[in-house]
Amino acid sequence: MNARAVARRATIAANAIAPFAAGALAFAGEWGAAVGTVAAAHAAWMVPTLWPAAGAHGVVTTRLAREELWLTIDDGPHETDTPALLDVLDQAAVRATFFFIGERAARHPELVAEVVRRGHDLGNHTWSHPQYRFWASGPRGVREEILRCQDVLESLSGHRPRWFRAPAGLKNPWVFEVTEREGLDVACWSARGLDGISYDVDRAVARIAQALSPGGVVLVHEAQAGPERIATRVLHRTLDAVAERGLRFGAPPRSAAGAVA
Questions:
Q1: What is the CATH number of the domain that holds 141?
Q2: pLDDT > 90: percent of the chain
Q3: What is the pLDDT of residues 53-65, one digit of tens each?
Q4: Which end of the chain has fewer CB atoms < 10 Å from its terminal CB, N or C?
């Protein structure tokens, strides 16, 4: 068991024990110590959970130990965006990792197959993308979200994904209990435009461009819920920004080995 796993399980145990310890302290009249006990246990759990790049619970890949960038695309497949993005990537000769939502993949098996046929990789982005509650889910809910997505992507592509990215990047200790058991590496990002929640293309690309550097993990989105389709515009301009800085995208990494966590 690695050091992060030991620390993670200690955090899980501390949060299970803390209420009882606090109750005993409160019963003894030690109210300050009771509150401090619970606060410390919760902080050890919540701070890494709500900080996407934090690696206290397990290894999180935010950069690669190479010059080339890694392009990642979240939230598909989408009947309009995915084919259009594939055409842009073909024109630019860039390969990406598409982090697909399992239930969307199940509705669009032809798009999953096309992504693989064109030489791109698939990543696990949970079954239903429960971004407002995944970070607070217990072990059963976390496992179901991850494994259902793994199973459907494997059945549709013939390959079991090697990478997992949590909705909004928020992941509690239970996530790593599942990913480590399943041989999944956890991806984060070093450059993102917030194009999944903001529909201002200029601002999205400016955020990405500002954060570009060698070995970076670039995140863009498809299937946005806004009034117009912006995915291809964001991708086009991100590709331009990368080229303007003398950088280039490389092949998707096969694992976190060699990554800068």
A1: 3.20.20.370
A2: 92
A3: 999 999 999 999 9
A4: N
The answer to the question of residue 261 being in a domain is no
Looking at the domain assignment, is residue 208 inside a domain? yes
Q: What are 190-230's pLDDT values in tens digits? A: 999 999 988 899 999 999 999 999 999 999 999 988 778 99
Q: What is the pTM of this model?
A: 0.95
Per-residue pLDDT, averaged over 144-152, amounts to 98
Number of domains in the chain: 2
**Residues annotated as catalytic (active site), given as ranges:** 74, 221
The reply to whether 80 falls in a domain is yes
* Domain of 7, in residue numbers: 3-50
Three-state secondary structure along the chain?
CCHHHHHHHHHHHHHHHHHHHHHHHHHCCCHHHHHHHHHHHHHHHHHHHHCCCCCCCCCEECEECCCCEEEEEEEECCCCHHHHHHHHHHHHCCCCEEEECHHHHHHCHHHHHHHHHCCCEEEECCCCCCCCCHHHCCHHHHHHHHHHHHHHHHHHHCCCCCEECCHHHCCCHHHHHHHHHHCCEEECCCEECCCCCCCCHHHHHHHHHHCCCCCEEEEEECCCCCCCCCHHHHHHHHHHHHHHCCCCECCCCCCCCCEEC
Q: Examine the domain organization and report whether 139 and 115 are in the same domain.
A: yes
